[in-house]
C-alpha cells in the first residue's frame, strides 16, 4: 500500500462525503474488509479523486450519473450529499437525472429522483 496516496485519499474522501460518514464506514473495518477499505482510500479517493485534471464538482456530477444508472441507492445518497458539498446545485442534479432517464432508463431515474428529494428534505430539515 502506498501510505502517502492512502492518506491523500482519506483526506479527499472525508472532504467530499463528510468526516462522520467516513468515520462510520471505518469503524466497521475488520480483518475481512480492511484490504478493501485500504484499496478504496488509496485508488478510488487518492489516485483518481486526488487528480487535479477534473474539478471535484465535475467528478461528483459524473458519479451521480453513473451511480444512478447502476441503481446503487446507498452510494447514490452518499455521493449526492458529496455533490452538494462540491458545489453541484439542485438544478444541475435535476438535469443530470433527466439525462440519466434518457440514457440509463426510467426506473433508475425514478429511484434517483425519489432519493434526491429525500436528501434535499433532510438537508432542509423537513424529513
From TrEMBL:
InterPro entries: 4CMD/NDH-1_regulator, AhpD-like, CMD-like. Gene3D superfamilies: AhpD-like (1.20.1290.10). Transmembrane segments: none annotated. It holds the Pfam family CMD. Residues 36-118 form the Carboxymuconolactone decarboxylase-like domain. It comes from the Bacteria. One of its GO terms (molecular function) is peroxiredoxin activity. PANTHER family: 4-CARBOXYMUCONOLACTONE DECARBOXYLASE FAMILY PROTEIN, CARBOXYMUCONOLACTONE DECARBOXYLASE-LIKE DOMAIN-CONTAINING PROTEIN. This is 4-carboxymuconolactone decarboxylase. It comes from Bradyrhizobium hipponense. The lineage of its organism: Bacteria, Pseudomonadati, Pseudomonadota, Alphaproteobacteria, Hyphomicrobiales.
